[in-house]
Model the fold of this input.
Amino acid sequence: MSACLTRIALAATACALAMPASAQTVARKDLSVDGAVIIATTAMADCKAKGWPVSTTVVGRNGEVLVQLRGDGTGPHTMQNSYLKAFTSRTFRIPSGEMEKRLKDNPQMGAQYLTGFTTGRGALPIKIGDEVVGAAGASGAPGGEKDEACIQTGLDKVKDQLK
Done:
């Protein structure tokens, strides 16, 4: 009798394991391309109005480029540099310039060996609520703090959309 019960229990277990698991989904908000364009163009216009030609890059949740603009009269390195700043900011969910302090505090930090990493200031994370959904970076102004200020102007332009 116990052998029969054991077989039934094993059969029931096998059937339970063979049944499909219920699907799990993730609901999230992402930065739209329209928002990315506004951030990039507003930041670029703000820097240009101050006499600083810059290139801007906005990356999405996965660090992918949503918008990249090369400013008139910018150096060839500004496109890549604006991307590296934005990618670093998105990856670590902090302003890109904070990486310099982190590296000084921990010279053995493994992040310094990652591809696409920079300690250059000039990018800020883009948040919807408390969730980082992207980042924007600029390069070309005379100092990363100026790049960052222009990016902040771009973020301020869309702050009502980032709720």
About this structure: Residues 2-18 form the longest helix (17 residues).
